[in-house]
Design goal:
The complex is a heterotrimer. Chain A is 27% helix and 32% strand. By secondary structure, chain A is α+β, with helices and mostly antiparallel strands. Chain A has two domains: 229 residues, Rossmann fold, CATH 3.40.50.300; 87 residues, Beta Barrel (OB fold (Dihydrolipoamide Acetyltransferase, E2P)), CATH 2.40.50. In chain A, a hairpin with a 2-residue loop joins strand 1 and strand 2. In chain A, helix 2 packs across helix 3 and helix 2 runs parallel beside helix 4. Chain A is globular and about 75 Å long. Chain B folds into two domains: 52 residues, no CATH class; 165 residues, MetI-like (MetI-like fold, Orthogonal Bundle), CATH 1.10.3720. The two termini of chain B are 21 Å apart. Chain B is 72% helix and 0% strand. Chain B is globular, with a radius of gyration of 23 Å. Chain C has a single domain, classed as MetI-like (MetI-like fold, Orthogonal Bundle). In chain C, 74% of the residues lie in helices and 4% in strands. A two-stranded antiparallel ribbon of chain C has the order 1-2. The chains are: A alpha+beta, B mainly alpha, C mainly alpha. Chains in contact: A-B, B-C. The interface between B and C is large, with 101 and 111 residues.
Chain lengths: 334, 274, 290
């Protein structure tokens, strides 16, 4: 079991209100990602759930039980830290066994559990090594192993991939997703990387300045962002925001068009623009254009679309995928 | 830098560096050499080749009872350091892992006590010691040296502890470790190198402390500093023997010192230079 | 992280250190302050009376006082000049690609571990002695008149000995700072066409500035209290020629048994030390904020 409920949870550090007030429901078995720019309070929120920080107000319940004042260890959660926080003086085996030892489990059972975890995480050959002798990815897996053996009701991940290089990040993303499918345990994952959020989450919680901007599945957020912030944060490259004549003609203060929702042609279209930068990624080409009467726009073209600096290109936005926002920045329902 | 240095330049620098190093080391070397000379050789003019007698070492022990001040030095330096560690460990732990707004002020204040000139409190300490019957006692001097080095011990332990990442302690708490388990299984093993360094540097400092040890002792508790200082007008003990006594007084700490170069920089600059 | 429980625990854990140091700082200092206003001589301990500012006046009008202040100043500045300039030069030298760097380092830092009385006696008897010292032998070899260091240049002799003891400290700290200089910065400066001297002035020296500050301030604290080196060599003389403030106070208090006078001198020493300490604390404190 692992359902977590936050009620009116707030946190202040001295004068600073980091989290004004948050309500959130996390269901058992869900993979929830807290995403937002740095300083948005996502890590603080995770640490409040973990019990590493005291809440300033409100209640936290796990499986219906109020744990607001419980010590971290009593909450039945396991955490994977950004720095992995492995014990440098212990072997991998002892690192993974540490929580079991603290729980006074008998040695035979500890050995079995550590062995199982090592097998799942491909660490069997490294059990006698110290963390200092491992690569970044292996350390990451040890940290996860230490979390798994406790069979927690939920896993908490605090930006676990930010210290890895790009290739390894991709692999570990898959491994963590795979782990979630195997274990079916609730996972709460904090990141500033919207790609990690989109690819892994069942449910994304977008945070900004300590407030929840929107909660939803990755596709919900992508298709129907509730406001400008979410629209700009989810999706890569970023959504184009257009103001002025064009937006007005669509009945909005701001019109949002994703780069992938713009048709490109060399012959004709609604707008015309000049290519300022062309990023050829192989399968895709991202064109940064200066559009006449509108300004800079990013658009996605196919990999075969040959365009380079200075070329004239015609653009046509897909009206059916248009996002409209009012003068408060909120989305206008169709 | 992966730059190639010409062998010629390298040899030039090497010779220059070695000449400077040997010049600086010369007084120590010469005392060592002289300690193996006879008294006649010692005053017979410059010579780097002694006759190789061990007689001076034997005489120093037999005539002047070298062993007592040596043991006093060991007891005072090690004793005061261990005492300081016992007092300082919890304080450093608290300041490193449960810092408050005032932690920095307390640290700075502790450091400031180190700035008080010893001579300014010479009389009160002397009078207190006399009235309590602590003059020329090991216990009195041990406490004294402990107080003198306490700020450095706290400060050094603090800088070492602060390098232990907070996330590791949080991980231990998530893993269900209570405060004692946290100390026994995580903090103590990770803190051992820092504690050892602190111990080493403070034994060195206490061994060489030459104000209070001279002021507050006469014979019973006199460590090597006071013992050697009593030879300022060498009656009966001449240079070869003085060299032997000096060599014995500095050898142990010199060797310890060679192992503590890094800690020395850190400890004496209060972490300002690493 | 800090919950109410750990805060209380932290206070209890800090208490022994804080209380000990508080007693150590306040009690003797208060006594010194008190004595400095008393006529109190250990030879006549029955005749204690209030002296007002007499002790200060006495200390202040003693010609030895100004000489000792002057000597203290010369001693501190002399040693600082030698150790800082020498330390930079030696640190730069050791930082070159030389053979046996480890051993050179060990040789250079060794004097720091020599206890002050031993250092002073080695120099007094074996190096600077006018009859049998190495320097005298050297002078004779060149046919020159040997110098009687402690009679002719007492203060300079003390400065040389103390500088020898502290040169390793300065060298070691400056070397540590030097080795933390980013190699890429040096390479960038080279790419920018800076020659060795320009690189030293514009890159190395600014990088060392903090280490130099620390060396100066910490050494000053210790140099103000130079004692054993004077005791075993010149004993402050001839006359007051090599008496610094510390030694003068010691003389007044322990040899003259004048508690009041010594205490007044002690208070003056505290004031002087505090001026230096003020700057040191600021330098170290800044570092804490990083």
């Amino acid at each position: 079991m692992g359902s977590i409920t936050l009620k009116n949870v707030s946190k202040t550090f001295g004068e600073a209100k980091v989290i004004p007030s948050i309500d959130l429901e996390i269901n058992n078995g869900e993979f929830v990602v807290f995403v937002g720019p740095s300083g948005c309070g996502k890590s603080t929120l995770l640490r409040l759930i973990a019990g590493l920080e005291d809440v300033s107000g409100g209640h936290i319940m796990i499986d219906g039980k109020d744990v607001t004042d419980a010590a971290p260890a009593e909450r039945g959660l396991a955490m994977v830290f950004q720095s992995y926080a492995l014990y440098p003086h212990m072997s991998v085996r002892k690192n993974i066994a540490f929580p079991l030892k603290m729980a006074k489990m008998d040695q035979a059972q500890i050995d079995k559990k550590v062995g199982d975890a090592a097998r799942i995480l491909n660490l069997t050959d490294y059990l006698e090594r110290r963390p200092g002798q491992l690569s970044g990815g292996q350390r990451q897996r040890v940290a996860i192993g230490r979390a798994i053996v406790r069979e927690p009701s939920a896993f908490l991940f605090d930006e676990p991939l930010s210290n890895l290089d790009a290739a390894l990040r991709g692999t570990m993303r898959l491994e963590i997703s795979d782990l979630h499918h195997q274990l079916k345990t609730t996972m709460i994952y904090v990141t500033h990387d919207q790609i990690e959020a989109m690819t892994m989450a069942d449910k994304i919680v977008v945070l900004n300045r300590g407030n929840i901007e929107q909660v939803g599945s990755p596709l919900e957020l992508y298709k129907t962002p509730r406001n400008l912030f979410v629209a700009g944060f989810i999706g890569s490259p970023k959504m184009n925001f257009l103001e002025g004549e064009y937006a007005k003609s669509k009945g909005a203060k701001t019109a949002g068009v994703r780069p992938e929702h713009i048709g490109l042609s060399k012959d004709s279209g609604l707008w015309s623009g000049t290519v300022t930068v062309a990023e050829h990624l192989g399968a895709d080409t991202f064109l940064h254009l200066d559009v006449d009467g509108i300004g800079p726009i990013t658009a996605r073209a196919g990999g075969e679309f040959g365009a380079s600096y200075g070329d004239k290109v015609f653009l046509t936005p897909d009206d059916s995928k248009l996002h409209r926002f009012d003068d408060k920045g909120l989305a206008i329902k169709a | 830098m992966a730059r190639k240095v010409t062998t010629g330049a390298r040899i030039g620098w090497t010779i220059a560096a070695w000449v400077v190093a040997l010049l600086i080391f010369f007084p120590i070397l010469y005392a060592l050499i002289t300690s193996f000379k006879t008294e006649q050789e010692a005053i017979a003019g410059f010579s780097l080749i002694p006759s190789g007698t061990f007689e001076n070492y034997i005489t120093v022990e037999e005539q002047r009872d070298y062993f007592t001040p040596f043991m006093n030095s060991v007891i005072l330096s090690v004793g005061s350091t261990i005492l300081a560690l016992i007092v300082a460990l919890p304080a450093a732990w608290a300041m490193a892992f449960a810092p408050t707004k005032r932690t920095k002020d307390i640290l700075m204040w502790m450091l400031s006590t180190k700035m008080m000139p010893s001579v300014a409190v010479l009389l009160p300490i002397f009078i207190i010691f006399r009235n309590l019957g602590l003059l020329d006692t090991r216990i009195g001097l041990t406490v004294m040296l402990m107080l003198i080095n306490l700020p450095i011990v706290v400060w050094m332990l603090y800088t070492y502890f602060r390098e232990i990442p907070g996330e590791i302690l949080e991980a231990a708490r998530m893993d269900g470790a209570g405060i004692w388990q946290e100390i026994v299984y995580v903090l103590a093993p990770m803190g051992v190198p820092g504690i050892a360094s602190t111990l080493l540097l403070n034994v060195i400092l206490a061994w060489n402390e030459a104000f209070w040890t001279i002021q507050l002792t006469t014979t019973n508790a006199a460590p090597l500093t006071a013992f050697i200082a009593s030879f300022s007008s060498p009656q009966g003990l001449f240079w070869a023997k003085l060299s032997a006594a000096s060599t014995m007084a500095i050898a142990p700490i010199l060797i310890l010192g060679w192992f503590s170069q890094k800690q020395l920089v850190r400890g004496l600059t209060f972490g300002a230079v690493k | 992280m800090a919950t109410q429980n750990t805060k209380t625990l932290a206070r209890v854990m800090m208490a022994p250190s804080v209380i000990l140091l508080l007693i150590w700082m306040i009690v003797p200092l208060a006594m010194t302050l008190y004595y400095s206003f008393q006529n109190y001589n250990l030879l006549t301990p029955m005749n204690v009376s209030f002296a007002g500012f007499f002790n200060y006046q006495y200390f202040y009008t003693d010609p030895a006082f100004f000489q000792s202040i002057w000597n203290t100043l010369v001693l501190v500045l002399g040693v600082l000049a030698i150790t800082v300039i020498g330390g930079i030069a030696i640190a730069l030298l050791i930082d070159q690609p030389i053979f046996g760097q480890g051993i050179v380092r060990i040789l250079v830092i060794s004097p720091f571990f020599v206890m002050p009385p031993v250092a002073a006696l080695i120099w007094k008897n074996m190096i600077m002695h006018p009859g049998y010292g190495v320097l005298a032998d050297l002078a004779q070899f060149f046919g020159a008149q040997p110098i009687d260091w402690f009679a002719q240049y007492p203060l300079l002799s003390v400065i040389i000995i103390v500088a020898w003891q502290w040169l390793p400290f300065a060298t070691l700290i400056l070397l540590t700072a030097l080795q933390s200089l980013d190699g890429e910065q040096k390479e960038a400066a080279e790419m920018d066409g800076a020659n060795a001297v320009q690189r030293f002035i514009h890159l190395t020296l600014p990088h060392l500035s903090r280490a130099i500050t620390v060396v100066i301030l910490i050494q000053t604290i210790f140099l103000l209290g130079v004692y054993a080196e004077i005791l075993v060599t010149t004993n402050g003389g001839p006359g007051y020629a090599s008496t610094n403030l510390t030694f003068l106070i010691y003389r007044t208090a322990r040899l003259g048994y004048d508690v009041g006078g010594g205490a007044a001198g002690g208070i003056i020493a505290v004031v002087l030390a505090n001026i230096v300490a003020f700057f040191l604390m600021r330098a170290v404190g800044k570092n804490l904020d990083k």
